[in-house]
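Quick entry, no commentary yet.
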Amino acid sequence: MSAGHIAALIAAGAFVLLVLFLAIALIKLGRTLDEATIAIRKAHENTDPILHGANDTITHVNTQLERVDGITANAQAVSGNVSALSSVFTATLGGPLVKTAAFSYGVTKAMRARRKAKAEDNGKHARRGRKGGRR
């Protein structure tokens, strides 16, 4: 065997070792890809029920929002009716009520002033009578 043959045998052995290391790495990479495929399959199987549940939930939420829209429209109509009723009440009874309140206030004030004046007159007459009775 010559030096060329020995070098060829060493090179062939090194190539075999390189092929073995690459084969082991490829086998490990294949297992990793298989596990990733299984994980993706499981995730896909588990997301279908979740997506169906989310779809049902969104459908129910939309139904409730439609109800809320109806309630809001009714509340707006009631608010408009109350405003109109308030305007009618103010127009029909507001003026007379204000006039009645002002009249009753004026009568009460006049009665108090008259009572006060009467009380002062009675007090003056009562004092004069006492002075005159002492003499």
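second:
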Amino acid sequence: MAPVAARRACNPVEPSGLTSTMKRQKKIKMEKKIKKTVKRLRVDMANISIEQRGIREQQKKIREKLEEIGSQCAQLREETELIFRQKAGNQVLLNLVCQIIKARQDRDIEKAASLACTLRDLIAKQKGKRMLMACPKCE
């Protein structure tokens, strides 16, 4: 091995003035700092993972609620459509009744009887069966 002076000549002191023990201590400090940072990052990652799991569960619940709301919306749409159809049917029946009343006021018995048969047929169709008391003129 070369004498100390020769070693120093080959490996002169760095401009910063750090010796090898100082370098080692600095390296150890850096490693400790890095280990501390890695440990903190792992804890942060674990916390983030837990938060993400919670977020996924909340999203799943929200998705289920939205699907439920969608099905309720579709059901309400169907019910509304049914009500409008019933309203239209009732309007037709009311118009026929008004025409029957007007025909009777005008003493047009044939028209009133024809309208009454039409009214009976519509009511029978709405109920899904033919009425027992059928008008002989309608048949």
